[in-house]
């Protein structure tokens, strides 16, 4: 141990570490019970980030309680050093405390998720227009002092984890160089500095990829969905991996005229185009909509024996005449390959298919009833009959109507929350936030409002697999060698950046274009940043128990081949991703 002049300062520092840790754990409990737990259930906050922060705080509390108990145990074993001069005993205690930090260093990485969410939650909680939220925060702070405010409590985890290296640095300065305790203190300091660097790196990672992680965590893992995997919406006919393609003559849905179209079938479904050179499909029939395909007995040519097949979906039957009768069975076999085995029937498929041939009041619902809705164009307030079910939200002119005036699909809903009376000059109003519009709805009472908000929140995406940045085991940029086989023939590895993220329970693959976007056209992320927000070209999530990993031979001196194979998904062929990395 250091010279006797430092013994007193060392004892004071160890006492400070223990006492401030006790206060910190107590404040975490207050933050959880007084603020975050109640905010996870209120109607006036869109609670996804709040709920995630609350869940992460429980993990932090678990770790910090164990860490505090370990500190207490080690310090109590050598408590005599606080009442007498025992340099060796104090050195032994310092070594023990350093070992506690070393044993919990890996656990402290869970702060990554909290720190990444902190800035987003701050924006939500600092909303000046949310009067109910402001009233709630004031009611929870009975003393009206800043030290008891949510702002004071919620920043403490961020501050505390960054202070640990500073405390260890002070311990190192008070210990004698070359001593056993100094070596352990310096080792603990180095490890904790790596933890803080990891947390900072995860914060930057979250700012860049949090929207992608959110979308991946809520997608159905048993389905390969086109819009989930390829959100760029760019699907020209010559840039889709093909199971089968070719020209055919299709009967129109409304006019019943027959027109020649170019068809492309892949594992997502069936596209058809004006021609093979077309840049945008006329229509896309998702595989989840398909029910059955068979050879047709219909013949549109009198006396002719032209080959035709029928494709049955939830809301329509498609009639397609092939180039020759010999093509009929190959098309049928190809389509049957991708029709899902476990298909879920939906009440409504999109905003155009909204006629039910039964009254609105007879539909199965989470909740239904009359509310007053603000119009989208004229902003007038009119009574509407609302229906919320597992597929989305529909509103009708009355309970007896068979045709919906509007449909909000489940996957369009981004949030729902109560808004203050001062904002709309009306009582008991909540907003439904979607990807393209915000709907304002007024209820008869506040109790009714709470029931509507609760029902609609059942439609919000819930993570099938939690993708918190604190759970990332490793990540990096890779060269995706077979990107053309999966994303499309126009896609080139040199024009894309592909990142692979290994979480505790899954692997995420995200690929983005390298194109330079003009400053005035840079998209803005949901977190408010724009500099690093680049749209995903492709993204996919593979559960850990669905992966086969193979390590290949080296491609060059600093590159190594490896591959991930995802097993069969709902009857589709297995998919192999071939990567190279350092």
UniProtKB/TrEMBL annotation:
Annotated protein name in UniProt: T-lymphoma invasion and metastasis-inducing protein 1-like isoform X2
Matches recorded under SUPFAM superfamilies: DBL homology domain (DH-domain), PH domain-like
CDD domains: RhoGEF (cd00160)
Domain PH span(s) in chain numbering: 241-340, 364-461
Domain DH intervals: 9-202
Biological process terms in GO annotation: small GTPase-mediated signal transduction
Domain of life: Eukaryota
Gene Ontology terms for molecular function: guanyl-nucleotide exchange factor activity
Organism: Crassostrea virginica
Entries under InterPro entries matching the protein: DBL_dom_sf, DH_dom, GDS_CDC24_CS, PH-like_dom_sf, PH_domain, PH_Tiam1/2, Tiam1/Tiam2/Sif
Sequence intervals crossing the membrane: none
